[in-house]
Design a protein that fits this description.
Helices cover 43% and strands 18% of the residues. The chain has 158 residues and is α+β, with helices and mostly antiparallel strands. The strands form three sheets. The chain has a three-stranded antiparallel β-sheet, with no helix packed on it. Helix 1 packs across helix 3. The chain is rod-shaped.
Length: 158
Amino acid sequence: MRLQVSPKGDCGIPVVAKGSEISEFHLVMKKPSIKLSVQKGFSLVELLVVIAVIAVIAAIAIPNIANITGAANAAKSQRNAQNLASVAAAAQAAGASLGAGDKAATVALLSGNGTTATINGVVMTFKVDSLSADEQTAALAYLAAGNGTLTYVPAGGQ
């Protein structure tokens, strides 16, 4: 009995035949038939889903941001009005002149150069940090003029 090795075969494995008979035994090893595809990016559907999710989030968030900004501006105007009313009350108590009693003129005076009063030989200046024209106008909605001074009105005044 003799073994014969042949260089033919699948996958580089030699074919072995026994004896001089015609029958041959082939050792066959098949390569895996599973093809692994290499993805190089996102599919169009995946990109469209991401864009749709971002659009929904933006549709929800943008109106809320506008509401928050409006509330912040209203709070800023109320704070400015409170400061103006406090400074006006302090100036009036010290005997400083606040003008003719018009609230717009009083706000312009206090947010500009201010007004002065002399107490026990000490000159005191009553003013708030400079407010822009828009800030002054917004603060006027929360102020009322009366008795020669400004009064803060939380719900918006006359």
